[in-house]
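Hi, here's the filled form for the chain we discussed.

Project: internal
Contact: R.S.
Residues: 383
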Amino acid sequence: MIYLDNSATTYPKPLVVREQMQKALRELGANPGRSGYDMSVRTSQAVYNCRERAAALLGAPGPECVVFQPSCTQALNLVIKGYLKPGDHVVVSDMEHNAVMRPLQALEAKGVTYTKAVVAPGDNDATVDAFRKAMGPRTRLVVCTAGSNVFGVRLPVERIAALCHQYDAKICVDAAQTAGVVPISVTEGGIDFLCCAGHKGLYGPMGTGLLVLRDPGVSLATLTEGGTGTQSQSLLQPDDPPERYESGTLNVPGIIGLYAGMGFVSAMGMERIYREEMGKVSYLYEKLSRMGHVKLYTSPPAIPYFVPVLSFNIENRPSEEIGQILAKSGIAVRCGLHCAPCAHEKMGTKGTVRVSPSAFTRPQEMEALACRVRAIANTVQKR
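And the returned structure, exactly as it came back:
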């Protein structure tokens, strides 16, 4: 199988991830932070090591600023529902995933409002200006993707963060598509809340995600309360991160796998990963742009304005149909709305075929996809 659905989850995972997860199941089976016997202590240390690695990779002030979550979606919900209050105003981009839009829609009934800033692909000045115009006196939070999960458009989140702070607002960045691919620093970039998927560009397993805090003193209302292994004498949830947001038993095998995945990213280097993956989508874009009946939705994907995600369609053929044809040829892509109807509305589509490579994607696999798309497009000409 040629797997090109890495925006959903990366596959395959590095061998070290699989090995370390198996080792965790064999040797680190105790509950971390709950007991003083040897296996529990070693498990706690392994969890802490993952926090340290994530803090270093993502530019957090310290390991206490790294909160484990089951997904990027959960991290976004924690920030959006934990920070906003009735009467608050939020600014989002017009390319957001439903992981942002659905929580905000749910909060509208509680008096939270939002405005969409119009992203100008490839024009960061215009994008920042759009966010500036959307800000208002009640704006308390900006939530925006670092890179579109459909069209690969990259947003200048560091510049948007600086703008937010001019208005005494905070920024929450959805880095589901960029963490592990595009270098980012919470501290240097002024990112108040960074939400990441552990199972995509960080090469961890499914069921892992991160919330990274720039200031551990900023308190969020909790989504869940319960046992944390700390301050057990109190019936109140702890005030300090990360325990405040981590009730219940942690996903230790997943965290160990995430630790190994981040080690893979660090060893390879994010700059190299980004450059090589962009080369793969640029190659495919150039091939597709020469084909009749193939529609592309952006300008050629170029660094630093895009991330390695590409969408296309073939005239008069639903994207789902194209996906089925490709699947029968052993090529895995994602078709439809990609849980991001706002992005599709912006680009005037009812669904697209999305291609997203990984560090393991070979150039000949992109060539095989291009050849198969050409064959499908040629059938349109014959109709």
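Let me know if anything looks off before we file it.
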